[in-house]
Amino acid sequence: MKIIVIGFFLSVMASVSHSAELLQIPANPDKGFNYPYLIKLPEVVSNQDKIFLIVETNNTGKVSDDYDVHLEAAKNAIVGNAVGPWLSKKLSYPILMPVFPRPESAWQVYTHALDRDSMLVKSVPFERLDLQLKAMIENAYDILRERSLKLQDGVILAGFSASGTFANRFSLLHPEIIEIVVAGGLNGTLMLPTASLESHSLKYPLGINDFNQIAGRNFNLDEWLTIKQFLFMGENDTNDAVAYDDAYSEEERLVIYKTTGKSIHPERWSNSQEAYKKYGANVTFRTFKGVGHGTNGTVHSEFLAFVQGNI
């Protein structure tokens, strides 16, 4: 796998062959993104009429003020077997992965999960990572279409653990650019398409009570309902980000416990599912027996079949 660092001169990029390429696109603040992103091109481009761009955000798994730590982790992840990269290999679709930081000096800002702190920061390079990712996607479409890839307009958004939580939240923020969501390892907790539950206000990222303040526009329920979603957990998954201060504030934690529940299984995960069903979400929920905070062949085969059946 060769890594090619490219700028924004499309005539140069168009001369590079398709085989086994990992492209590193530099940061371009003028185009709306302050960090580089990666594109992995499939070794064999799909001959299907419909080709989708897969997107999975990076998840280093730890904080660090050394940006190279996040860059190297993303490079390893995009060629690995996480949800998005694995789908990319099986479907012969290109995949995009941003290289967002997760700074130790601002440890409470859980950028890789798109938490409330990360959506509220101002005048820093990692302000509004959701908009930066949207700009990266738009830029990637220009690059890939210059290479004669006939991409569909909606992306396949994938993720697991923190990147799964990012995918879930991003799907409510920007449903208009998403065709399918595949996300797992979600702590039994989803962002809900409602402003309140059990008389408790649900502010971002628990719900949409202050959505306009956070996103700068109203929540588009109709658009969100068109997204085809596959959301999953392992029945033995005890990885609970809700209990940690970098992922949730004490106020958010108490609201979660009072509304959807304190235990991941079955309480919180079941109540989250019921809330999605109540509002008519186009979602398939799966709880995989014998699986913890991870995936296996059965999990992969099911979400692959789901994607194939919805494109």
TrEMBL record:
Residues 1-19 form the signal peptide. It comes from Microbulbifer epialgicus. The keyword Signal applies. The keyword Signal applies. This is Alpha/beta hydrolase family protein. SUPFAM superfamilies: alpha/beta-Hydrolases. InterPro entries: AB_hydrolase_fold. Keywords: Signal.
